[in-house]
């Protein structure tokens, strides 16, 4: 019971959308994440297309059109093969992780298809317990707040929100962060269970563009066990396989400065995840 009460208190720090802000460790936002959103590669593609059209005359344009059509024909089977591979990869990783699916309707707050998926947001629970006990706590709390996945310290994983649904796991962020992260509050998220937390954090949009993962961990009370980190490696690979592209990885305090999660002990891992998608910096 003592542990349960502690969990009840501390879970507020991470997930209750900034209602309990006083207990959080102030932290700078991840300013560098703006460079990770792929804007550079989009610009590069745009300029390449521009130079091609400038070089083309009328006949070249016809040839280019024919080539484009051929490319489309040739690409279609490859894309289908890619999707099939991604799907089998997702199934393989789901099996390896032994994910327990425990979906609950009250945790679903809208639709989030792949066209809206951009971020994987990592959290600390700031409490200890099994993954299923965390999900039970969220349900009993009756506020509709949950992340898609919980990873326990032994590496076991529970999923309580489907990947293509919106979960409430990041709440309101710093005013200006919608623009910074390229997210918008377009009302796909029903917002049930969340309230604004002040003028400094008015932006609401990240839930609609992200998948949330909670790591069972308390800041300042030890490191992240290897089994938990290896499970996170695989879970990120699973999410990448599901969507067919790599989402940008951030932590909760990047969205709302002042949050405690992820904790300072995770800093080196977070850098590794952002560059190699594994905790030890070794790409797969
Ligand atoms: Zn959090």
Jot down its keywords:
single chain, 284 residues, alpha/beta, 2 domains, 8 helices, binds zinc ion
- Strand neighbour order, sheet with most strands: 1-4-3-5-2-6
Count of extended strands? 6
Average pLDDT for all residues: 79
Kindly identify the CATH topology of the largest domain. Lysozyme-like
- Gross geometry: globular
End-to-end span in angstroms?
42 Å
Indicate the percent of residues in helices.
Answer: 40-55%
* CATH class membership of the largest domain: Alpha Beta
CATH evolutionary superfamily of the largest domain: Peptidoglycan recognition protein-like
Round the Cα radius of gyration to an integer and report it. 21 Å
Textual characterization of the structure:
The chain has 284 residues and is of the alpha/beta class. The chain folds into two domains: 2-40 and 99-276, Lysozyme-like, CATH 3.40.80.10; 42-90, no CATH class. 42% of the residues lie in helices and 8% in strands. It has eight helices and six strands, in the order αααββαββαβαβαα. It has a six-stranded mixed β-sheet, with helices on both faces. The longest helix has 40 residues, at 58-97. The N and C termini lie far apart (42 Å). Residues 1-13 and 16-62 have low confidence and may be disordered. Bound molecules: zinc ion. The site of zinc ion has 6 residues, from helix 1. Zinc ion (ZN) is lined by residues 14-15, 123, 252, 259, 261.
Short characterization:
The chain has 284 residues and is an alpha/beta fold.
Helices, strands, pairings?
Layout: H1 2-15, H2 39-55, H3 58-97, E1 100-101, E2 119-124, H4 131-141, E3 149-151, E4 157-159, H5 177-181, E5 210-215, H6 226-243, E6 248-251, H7 252-255, H8 267-276
Parallel strand pairs: 1-4, 2-5, 2-6, 3-5
Antiparallel strand pairs: 3-4
């Amino acid at each position: 019971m003592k542990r349960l009460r502690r969990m009840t208190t501390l879970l507020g720090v991470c997930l209750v959308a900034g209602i309990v802000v006083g207990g959080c460790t102030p932290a700078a936002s991840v300013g560098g994440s703006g460079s990770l959103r792929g804007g550079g590669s989009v610009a590069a593609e745009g300029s390449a297309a521009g130079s091609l059209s400038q070089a083309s005359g009328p006949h070249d344009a016809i040839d280019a059109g024919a080539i484009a059509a051929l490319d489309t024909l040739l690409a279609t089977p490859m894309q289908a093969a890619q999707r099939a591979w991604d799907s089998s990869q997702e199934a393989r990783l789901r099996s390896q992780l032994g994910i327990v699916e425990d979906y609950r309707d009250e945790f679903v707050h809208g639709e989030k298809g792949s066209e809206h998926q951009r971020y994987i947001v990592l959290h600390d629970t700031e409490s200890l317990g099994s993954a299923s006990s965390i999900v039970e706590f969220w349900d009993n709390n009756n506020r509709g707040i949950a992340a898609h996945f919980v990873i326990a310290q032994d590496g076991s994983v529970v999923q309580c929100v489907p990947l293509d649904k919106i979960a409430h796991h990041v709440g309101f962020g710093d005013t200006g962060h919608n623009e910074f992260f390229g997210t918008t509050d377009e009302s796909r998220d029903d917002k049930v269970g969340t309230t604004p937390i002040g003028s400094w954090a008015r932006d609401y949009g990240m839930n609609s563009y992200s998948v949330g993962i909670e790591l069972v961990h308390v800041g300042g009370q030890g490191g992240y066990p290897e089994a938990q980190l290896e499970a996170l490696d695989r879970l990120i690979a699973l999410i990448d396989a599901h969507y067919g592209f790599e989402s940008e990885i951030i932590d909760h305090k990047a969205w709302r400065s002042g949050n405690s999660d992820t904790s300072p002990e995770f800093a080196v891992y977070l850098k590794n995840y952002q560059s190699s998608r594994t905790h030890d910096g070794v790409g797969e």
